[in-house]
From TrEMBL:
GO cellular component: endomembrane system
Keywords, in A-Z order: Ion channel, Ion transport, Ligand-gated ion channel, Membrane, Transmembrane, Transmembrane helix, Transport
Superkingdom assignment: Eukaryota
Ranges where the record places region Disordered: 361-393, 408-437
Example GO BP: monoatomic ion transmembrane transport
Compartment(s) of residence: Endomembrane system
Homology family: Belongs to the cyclic nucleotide-gated cation channel (TC 1.A.1.5) family.
InterPro entries in alphabetical order: cNMP-bd_dom_sf
Membrane topology: Multi-pass membrane protein
Transmembrane segments: 60-80, 100-120, 215-235
Protein name according to UniProt: Uncharacterized protein
Species of the source: Rubus argutus (Southern blackberry)
Matching SUPFAM superfamilies: cAMP-binding domain-like, Voltage-gated potassium channels
Length: 437
């Protein structure tokens, strides 16, 4: 693994970037010695940024990228999430386990925040060194990298580097030559220049916990202010609507008083009108319920009226001890649907009775033209049936008339049955045996 080293004093104080994030950011700008120049004599330092970036992309970039990605954290999250799902909310059942689970996530977020802060602190410190090197006039940026002792002009820079860097990148005093911002704590506490891993890790973790807590408090405070502003807006809207309704009520009451005064109503009627207006306001708060209910569908209006009037109906002695379903089916029994069915049923029964009476009357009328059994001789070749002149007798005429009447009656029955309308189906009757008390 690559470790860049900055020379910070006469005792060769080094800053070692052990984090892989810092390695990736610095490796693309770090000079290297060409392998072809190592065979003979002193190696040649390559400072071309394009060559450095090309070499890093071909050799170390993908390995460092795989190391930087939070693959262990993803695996841990998937494992914990799968276990919690399999155990059907075991974390929610145990308060301590749930607290430890969310504390683990909080620690992980603090670690990521501290690592990002450490990386940006190194970048800020490197920017200060570069500015100090350029402003001195006797330094090149290549002198800040390791292995630059043999470069031309390095000996002159080596004599003044401590004074220049300490003077330009110092964090002591009130007037600081360079503004480090939020990264000043990392430089003043020597976290960057330290070579102890645990001190770096713990300090960055502490900084991440502290600032993440501040971020959470800021977010909670901002969210609270937003919710409070929404609450104030809703209360203001409610008060404005209530004020508008009160003003409308005052206007209606004033118009009512003027109308009663104009009509010279007696005092008792005026008191009754005032009480009615007051009761109506206390019940509806100025809302026109009729207009609201009329815009709803028919079934919804029926349910709303049932809900509003059920307690009033319960006061009737007949419905006091009835079950709720029994009361409901009683209302349905006397509803418009049952009345329509009853009217249609009565009309059908009356028409059936009238048709039977008419048929009976016709049958009696036709029976008056009947003949006795003694007339059988007329069919057997009597003189009336076979007159000398060859004309049909009285018996043949009666038979023809009865045959025509029967044919006409059958035709009328068939035509009346085809024209008969379909009877309205009877509504289902309530069955209380299917319900459990």
């Amino acid at each position: 693994m690559y470790k860049s080293q900055y020379i910070g004093g006469q005792k060769e104080k080094f800053v070692r970037l052990d984090d892989l994030d810092s390695t990736m950011s610095m490796s693309s700008d770090t000079a290297y010695i060409a392998p072809s120049s190592r065979v003979f004599g002193r190696g040649e330092l390559v400072i071309d940024s394009s060559e450095i970036a090309r070499r890093y992309l071909h050799r170390y970039f993908f390995v460092d990228l795989a190391s930087v990605l939070p693959l262990p954290q993803i695996v841990v999250y998937r494992f914990l999430h799968g276990k919690s799902a399999e155990s059907t909310g075991s974390f929610a059942e145990s308060a301590w386990a749930g607290a430890a689970y969310y504390l683990l996530w909080f620690m992980l977020a603090a670690q990521v925040t501290g690592a990002a802060w450490y990386l940006l602190s190194v970048e800020r410190y490197d920017t200060c060194w570069r500015d100090a090197c350029i402003e001195s006039g006797k330094c090149r940026v290549e002198f800040l990298y390791c292995g630059s002792e043999g470069m031309q002009g390095f000996s002159e820079w080596d004599k003044i580097r401590v004074d220049v860097l300490n003077q330009s990148c110092s964090t002591e005093g009130d007037e600081k030559p360079f503004n480090f911002g939020i990264f000043e704590g990392a430089i003043s506490s020597n976290v960057i220049s330290s070579t102890e891993f645990f001190s770096k890790f713990l300090f960055c973790l502490w900084w991440g916990l502290k600032n993440l807590r501040d971020f959470i408090f800021i977010g909670i405070g901002t969210l609270g202010l937003i919710l409070f502003a929404l609450l104030i807006g809703n209360i203001q809207t409610y008060l404005q609507s209530l004020t508008i309704r009160l003003e409308e009520m005052r206007i209606k009451r004033r118009d009512s008083e003027q109308w009663m005064h104009h009509r010279w109503l007696p005092q008792d009627l005026r008191e009754r009108v005032r009480r009615y207006d007051q009761y109506k306001w206390l019940e509806t708060r100025g809302v026109d319920e009729e207009s609201i209910v009329q815009t709803l569908p028919k079934d919804l209006r029926r349910d709303i009226k049932r809900h509003l009037c059920l307690n009033l109906v319960r006061r009737v002695p007949l419905f006091t001890n009835m079950d709720e379903r029994q009361v409901q089916y009683t209302f349905r029994f006397y509803s418009q649907q049952w009345r329509t069915w009853a009217a249609c049923f009565i009309q059908t029964a009356w028409r059936h009775y009238r048709s039977k009476a008419t048929e009976k009357q016709r049958r009696e009328e036709e029976g008056g033209f009947g003949y006795s059994d003694g007339d059988d001789d007329d069919y057997g070749g009597g003189d009336d049936f076979k007159g000398g002149s060859g004309k049909p007798g009285l018996g043949a005429t009666i038979l023809a008339s009865r045959f025509a009447a029967n044919a006409l009656r059958g035709h009328r029955r068939r035509s009346s049955s085809t024209r008969e309308l379909m009877q309205l189906q009877k509504p289902p009757e309530p069955d209380f045996s299917t319900y459990n008390d």
